[in-house]
Amino acid sequence: MASTNAAQWSEGTDHAEADPLLNTLLQQGWQLNDDANAIRKYFRFNTYTKVMDYANCIAIKSKRANHHSELTLKARSVTVLWTTHVPKGLSMKDLRMAEFCEMAAKEMVLAVEGGQEEECGPCGG
């Protein structure tokens, strides 16, 4: 696991505030990218519909925060990457949005009831 002091922080980021939050995210499975200026995590879901719901949830929050991620969507997974482009580096916005992603993923998993993961709701498809 990468250490928080390896992170390439965006100019103006308060390290005293950011380091503990980054450390928590790293313990939750987030990883620094190779340049240490972004964090990413792979999330797995039971259905394609959950993947799309999760991606839309992130999109709505991103729009409200005016901070957008890179999302890679596959049939049952989403990879989320957060970085700040101006000023370049990892920022508190990235960390707060990653925290939101954690919370949203947990809510999506809790929303799946037994047996429901194989269904596609009323469409039956």
From TrEMBL:
Pfam families xrefs: Pterin_4a
Biological process according to GO: tetrahydrobiopterin biosynthetic process
MF term (GO), any: 4-alpha-hydroxytetrahydrobiopterin dehydratase activity
Swiss-Prot/TrEMBL catalytic activity: (4aS,6R)-4a-hydroxy-L-erythro-5,6,7,8-tetrahydrobiopterin = (6R)-L-erythro-6,7-dihydrobiopterin + H2O
Gene3D superfamilies (UniProt xref): Transcriptional coactivator/pterin dehydratase
EC annotation from Swiss-Prot or TrEMBL: 4.2.1.96
Enzyme class: lyase
Name used for this protein in its record: 4a-hydroxytetrahydrobiopterin dehydratase
